[in-house]
Amino acid sequence: MQSLIKFISVAFIMVIGTMSVHATEKLKIIASFSILADITQKIGGDFVDVVSLVDPNADLHQFEPRPTDIKRLLEADIVIVNGLGFEPWLGRLNLATKTAPMQIIASQGVMPLALDRHDHTHTGANDTGPVDPHAWQDVSNVRLYAKNIAAALITRDPDHRARYLENLADYDAALETLDRDIRGALSTIPPEKRKIVTTHDAFGYFEKAYGLAMIAPLGVGSEAQPSAKDVAGIIRQIRDEAIPAIFLETAIDPRLAEQLAAETGVKIGGTLYADTLSQKNGPAGTYIAMMETNIRTLTAALAP
Ligand code: ZN
Predict the structure, then answer these.
(1) Which pLDDT does position 13 carry in this prediction?
(2) Sign (positive/negative) of CA torsion 111, 217, 213, 288?
C-alpha cells in the first residue's frame, strides 16, 4: 500500500513537472548558485525568471537554506542544482509536495574527478567515494551544463523549443571560443611557471583541462582549518617547487594565503573567482566574464 501511494504521488509529480506553462508566463527558476543562474539565463532568455538561491560572493560551502529559501524553492517551476555533492542540504529538504518543482542536476553526464586525485597510493579503479563538485572550472563541462538546462526548459515549456535551441547554439559557440581563448592565453605562460597556490581546492577540473597546476592548502570544502603541519607542508612545497605566485579567492578568507605569502616571500598574484560570480556590474558578472577575468589575473602575474 505504502509503495502504491508512493507510485501514485511520483506519477502525479511527473505530470505536474511536464505540464507546459501558459505562453505569457515566465518560467520561475531557482538555481542553487550564481554561475548556474547565469547559464540558465543565457539559455532561457526572455522566457525565464531566474534567481540564484545563494547570493554572488557568498561562500557556498557554508550555505544552509533558511525557511524563506525553502519557500522560494517550493514556489519555483524548476530548481537547478550543480550536483556532484555541492548541495548536500538539498537531500535534507522535502520538496516532494504535490506541486513539487522539477529538479535538474546540471552536471549530469560530467566525468567526475575523485577528491583524492593527488593521493597516488589510491588505486582509483572502482571509486564511488566523494567527488569534486567544481566541474564548471572546465568550460567543456559547462557546455554540457547548458545542454542539460536547455533540455529541461524544453520539457517544461515545449512551446519555446526553437528559441531555447537557438540560445543554446549561440551560447555553445561563445563557450567554444572561451575554451580556445583560455588555452591560447595560458600558452603564453612559461611551462615552469604553470604552478600556483590558491586557498581551497576548487580548480581540479581547470588543472586537468588546461594544464595549470593549482595547489591548495584547504580541501574542496572551504570550512576546515589546516593544521600547523599542513601549513608547514605547503610552505615547504612552495619553496621546493619554486611556485611563482599565490592567489586569493573571492568569498574565501584571505588570511591563510596572506600568511603563506608572508612566510615564503612569494607574491600575491591577485584574486581568482572559484565558486561565485561578482555582482552583475562587477568584473565577473557572467560565467564567461568570470573565466576571462581569472585568465587575465593569471597571465598578468605569470606571463613574462
Ligand atoms: Zn568550492
Answers:
(1) 45
(2) positive
Distance, CA of 78 to CA of 21 (rounded, Å): 12
Of 69-78, 172-181, 230-239, which has the strongest mean pLDDT?
172-181
State in Å: Cα 1 to ligand 1 middle: 43
Please state whether beta strands 195-197 and 78-81 pair in parallel, antiparallel, or not at all (unpaired): unpaired
Ligand 1 (single-atom ion) residues, CB below 5 Å: 202, 275
- Over residues 36-64, the pLDDT tens digits come to 999 999 999 999 999 999 988 788 888 99
Element (DSSP H or E) covering residue 80: strand 78-81
Q: How far is the CA of 156 from the centre of ligand 1 (A)?
A: 30
Task: Please say whether the beta carbons of 221 and 61 come within 8 A.
Answer: yes
The model carries a pTM of 0.87
Q: Round to whole Å and give the CA distance between 29 and 72.
A: 10
How much distance in Å is there from the Cα of 223 to the middle of ligand 1?
10
- A 10 A CB-CB count for 2 gives 6
